[in-house]
Amino acid sequence: MSKDILNFINGEYVKNASGRTYEKRNPVDDSLVGLVHEAGKPEVDAAVAAARAALRGPWGRLSVAERCAMLDGLVAEINHRFDDFLQAEIADTGKPAHLASHVDIPRGAANFQVFTDTIKNASTESFEMRTPDGKTARSYGVRVPRGVIAIICPWNLPLLLMTWKAGPALACGNTVVVKPSEATPSTATLLGEVMNKVGVPKGVYNVVNGFGVDSAGAFLTAHPHVNGITFTGETKTGAAIMKAGADGIRPVSLELGGKNAALVFADCDFDNAVATVTRSCFENAGQVCLGTERVYVQRPIFDKFVQALKGQAEAMKPGRPFDKATKIGPLVSKVHQKKVLGMYQKAKDEGATIVTGGGIPDMPADLKDGCWVQPTIWTGLPETATVVTEEIFGPCCHIQPFDTEDEVLNMVNANRYGLATSIHTQDISRAMRLAAAIEVGLCWINSWFLRDLRTPFGGSKQSGIGREGGLHSLEFYTELRNVMVKY
Q1: Does position 388 have pLDDT exceeding 70, yes or no?
Q2: Average pLDDT in the 246-272 region?
Q3: Stretch 337-347: mean pLDDT, rounded?
């Protein structure tokens, strides 16, 4: 049964003045999930106004301890309604239930807990000095909320990546207007119910649904009363948001595209390397910003590794999210399926050797209308090939042999992106040398997707600006003021 997916503004679910809606369809079988009410400029204006009013209202008068206690209640209520969030996330994304239940929902809740702990323990500096007339003065820092934060979210991990931003924003005392991806609006909208349930004041958390250009996204990022913009998504959109933020000199935090590499040396723990690269290439159907699309394998084990990864890819059974045999879900939408299949064709046109995959899997009749693609592996392309240089965001990778450390370092760094990498070797000296030399924001050694949420997260080069995570998030979500006292 389909439903209306409304905007959430000032503590209430509202339709839009224009009456414009669009269909949200399940990527598993193309069934109708619901009609999404697209926010226009009036709805965005109302959401920002509500957020501004909440800053001056009861939310702004709460102490840090009171605010954090309310957010701790939010965590408890998300966990209480775990199944509702799980169903909403799966309806939007089609991902396997075991993945969403172990990653998306628990990590989404944990993001609030991590940042309440952070802000309760955040300190500022204090200095004493002699004044020119021989008296004493003390200078100290005061941390204050930045204001109204616009949160622009991606569709691959909708709840997790939205709360990764809403968690620190709210913990620091800001108010937020969230624009979820048009493809995955459900969990951000559902969270409004939880906000009301635990007593979060009206206007603190708002959601406006819609698209980017000439829609909610553009209206929100251009709004003069938005004090900061945080975005996760593709680099082209990030550039447009950065331009919008320049009007009014408003700060931006951008986690953008990536073309992440895995380096596999001959001395690696072979089984661990195969298992880890399988996850990094194919988990969530390759729709992970930190996922691997370039694999570099030292020549002595190249053929063996290619065959082992081929076996793992071919064992990934597609199917319905709650089928325990399902190992891989669909892509998020028909639009994205078309893009990924276009890149599959591009690899073929440019002369790739297709080790496995390259098309659409043969699905049962009831799933044939879903957004399925095969896990795909290529070899044989030059480093200048399109699928080696451009982000695809699907379950695929190109595997390239290498001989020396310097050779692979040069290939890995010869890319405009710099988000993440993984290094597989038993030589810890080599691993640490490369970790310092590879131009990325995150590096794993003999692992992938491990995250300590207290550490800095973000990309280098065209993969982003700024760092979030732990105390590093406070650099964006708060402003520091200096107070000088002479006595």
Answers
A1: yes
A2: 97
A3: 98
Strand order from edge to edge, sheet including 464-465:
12-14, 7-9, 205-207, 175-179, 148-152, 228-232, 252-255, 464-465
> How far lies 296's CA from each of 143, 424, 430, in Å?
45, 10, 15
The residue annotated as part of the active site, out of 38, 43, 89, 255, is 255
Radius of gyration of the chain (CA): 24
Residue in 290, 214, 283, 285 with CA at minimum distance from that of residue 464: 290
Known catalytic membership, residue 255: yes
Quote the CA–CA distance of 472 and 487 in Å, as a whole number: 33
Provide, rounded to the nearest whole percent, the portion of the chain with pLDDT above 70. 100
Q: How far apart are CA 473 and CA 169, in angstroms?
A: 9
* Contact criterion met (CB below 8 Å) for 282 and 328: yes
443 is a catalytic site residue: no
User: 374 with 360: CB under 8 angstroms?
Assistant: yes
DSSP string, 399-437: EEEE-SHHHHHHHHHSSSEESEEEEE-S-HHHHHHHHHH
Question: How far apart are alpha carbons 389 and 485 in whole angstroms?
Answer: 55
Q: How far apart are the first and last CA of the chain?
A: 69
pLDDT in tens, 136-189: 999 999 999 999 999 999 999 999 999 999 999 999 999 999 999 999 999 999
Q: Which of 367, 396, 386 is nearest to 277 (CA)?
A: 396
Cα 45 from Cα 133, distance rounded (Å): 52
Q: Cβ distance 396 to 283 under 8 Å?
A: no
Q: Which domains does the chain have, with CATH numbers?
A: 3-256+463-486 (3.40.605.10), 260-452 (3.40.309.10)
Distance CA 242, CA 307 (A): 43
